[in-house]
Amino acid sequence: MKKLTTAVSDTLIEKIEVHNLVMVNGVKEQKLTVYYKFVGQID
Questions:
Q1: Is 1 among the domain residues?
Q2: d(CA 23, CA 1)
Q3: What is the domain count for the chain?
Q4: What does the alpha-carbon distance between residue 26 and residue 43 come to, in Å, rounded to a whole number?
Q5: Which residue did the predictor score with more confidence, 33 or 40?
Q6: What is the 3-state secondary structure (H, E, C) of 16-30?
Q7: Quick check: 36 and 42 in contact, CB under 8 A?
Q8: What's the confidence (pLDDT) of residue 39?
Q9: Domain-located, residue 12
Q10: Of the four, 10, 11, 12, 19, which is 20 to 30 A from 1 by CA?
């Protein structure tokens, strides 16, 4: 697979959580958690 299409992502991804924006050493950081179908969260 060379390209992630909407159909492929709908098949593989259950949900994506977008966490609050935080400042770390003057840099904005935002955590995303991806939950895959049949697997769950992968760290």
A1: no
A2: 36
A3: 1
A4: 25
A5: 33
A6: EEEEEEEEECCEEEE
A7: yes
A8: 82
A9: yes
A10: 19
